[in-house]
Design goal:
This protein folds into two domains: 91 residues, 3-Layer(bba) Sandwich (FAD/NAD(P)-binding domain); 44 residues, no CATH class. It starts with a strand and ends with a strand. The chain is an alpha/beta fold and 139 residues long. It is built from three helices and nine strands. The mean pLDDT is 92. 17% of the residues are buried. Bound molecules: flavin-adenine dinucleotide (FAD). The site of flavin-adenine dinucleotide has 19 residues, from helix 1 and strand 3.
Amino acid sequence: MLDVVIVGAGPAGLMAARSLPKNFSFLVIDKKKEIGLPIKCGEGIREKEFIQLFKTNDFPFVRNTVHEHEIRYKHLRRAFKADYLQLDRPKFEQWLAKPIKDKIRLNIKCIDITIKNDFAEIITNSLTDPTLMFRENMA
Ligand SMILES: Cc1cc2nc3c(=O)[nH]c(=O)nc-3n(C[C@H](O)[C@H](O)[C@H](O)COP(=O)(O)OP(=O)(O)OC[C@H]3O[C@@H](n4cnc5c(N)ncnc54)[C@H](O)[C@@H]3O)c2cc1C
């Protein structure tokens, strides 16, 4: 019985897991084989907000800083100036995952979720963890 199960070890799931109170028991599951892959992202992020969020600018996964952009779509072109970081997205997600790596299970797909009285059950395709249960009502 866990306090929280997070389905999806993308940036949202990893940030959610990192933000949980220290005394919560939790697991993050993901159907993918490796954190950060495959990449489905342009890897650009607004610099100012990103630094504000993490309260540092010392990132080991930033490839470049970009100040001028051009968006092209068919015959349309739009240029604009803005300060963006170009990330190495797999490295970024691996960095997010590092402090909670023991709580992440890959190759596990959530197939269904059922609510039973005061707990919820995650049904997975895993032979070792076919069901994961967590308390439905934390109040
Ligand atoms: C082509 C493209 C370009 C993009 N470019 C940018 C960009 O330049 N800058 C930017 O900021 N954003 C960009 N984005 C958006 C960015 O990738 C998303 O906002 C971000 O990935 C969302 O994070 P997430 O954690 O919510 O979801 P995801 O990153 O999609 O993570 C969800 C995770 O859940 C897992 N999952 C899903 N279903 C199950 C299940 N049933 N069981 C177990 N695991 C499951 C998936 O395997 C996945 O790892 C782009 C997106 C695309 C598609």
